[in-house]
Amino acid sequence: MQLPLQHWLQTLGLTQYTDIIATLIMLTAMIFISLIIHLLLHKLLLPILKKQSEKSQQLWPKSLFKHRLFNRATWLLQGVLFQTLLHILFDPQSMLFVGLTTLCQLWVMLFSLLIAFSLLDVIQAVTARSEFAKQIPLRGIFQSIKLMMAILLVILMISLLLGKSPGTLLTGLGAMTAVLMLVFRDPILGLVAGIQLSANDMLKIGDWLDMPKYGADGAVIDINLTTVKVHNWDKTIVTIPAYALISDSFRNWRGMSESGGRRIKRSVNIDTTSIHFLSTEEIDQLGQAHLLSPYLVNKQQEISQWNAQRDNHNASLLNHRALTNIGTFRIWLESWLKTHPQIRQDMTLMVRQLAPSENGQPIEIYAFTNTVIWAEYEAIQSDIFDYLYAALPTFGLRVHQTPTGTDIRALMPSRPTE
């Protein structure tokens, strides 16, 4: 339409600068039409779509606006319409047509990439609460896809500006591989780490991660292309490089959470000087306990038969079998835990002796609670050991305790008062 306009201007008597005047008229018309289209799309269409999305009870219509999908689509449409107007209004042989067409193509490519980014963000937002998203670090995968798409777009843009094939540029980039590896080291390592974490089901959102090297002890709140964010129990947030989870070791407490039971593995140190054989009076007193009565009756019969067969009534005490207070205590504690309503009976449960040390004879409880909630677990464990410490004197046992300054001063002779 530019050439007919020039001829029309010449028929009006304009013999100079008709090409410039025609170009200005065409540009003015294009800008006016573009403004009209812009107002229609952004002031009329988008507000209507936004109101409809806000009325929807589903998440995805709101996500479309939150991640600017429709907004970017309108800008893409404007670029396409502008390019269409160029072909209608301008001479394809003019330099202005070539320059504006190149800018329109770059515009379309850029907003096509942004629309693809928005689509990925919408998919991530919609699937964020699904079990599939918890199993796979989608954010890291989507960021990897975005990075590759951005690199590809940059190559296409450069090839468009230079007027060369993208294959030629890719061939030239082979010599810059080392530089690219250095620049994109963290994203590449993060991408590989994210794939390995996902493929091996090593980590997902919500897992309890314990990694002392990086000061991480809390729940995983984000897994992206280069980092993993951990919300520690002390309310701090630790950021760990994604590739560190592959190169270093870490502890994932997911198995404990999924099992429904949390382990108690804790000892009480018995003063070895309080360990002795039970007397008849002590046996009678302990026999009143319901949990110990069957054990004591059976054990006494077994011991009496063993001693009677060897006729060691008048021999040394060392030739006899006898009940000990620490062994009876261990049996009672195990029986008591087996009747405890908050201890899992379908998991490992035992009370065992550990190797004695300068701190006495350790008696360890190894059991699992029926909850994995931290506060409830600590309350159950505390209740068990509160009762355990209070029950020890009944068996004639004492807890080992290192002497304090007060104990040492109590042994010193008192000074006479002047």
TrEMBL record:
PANTHER family: MINICONDUCTANCE MECHANOSENSITIVE CHANNEL YBDG. This is Mechanosensing system component YbdG. SUPFAM superfamilies: Sm-like ribonucleoproteins (SSF50182). It comes from the Bacteria. Residues 186-254 form the Mechanosensitive ion channel MscS domain. It is a multi-pass membrane protein. One of its GO terms (biological process) is cellular response to osmotic stress. GO terms for cellular component: plasma membrane. Keywords: Cell inner membrane, Cell membrane, Membrane, Stress response, Transmembrane, Transmembrane helix.
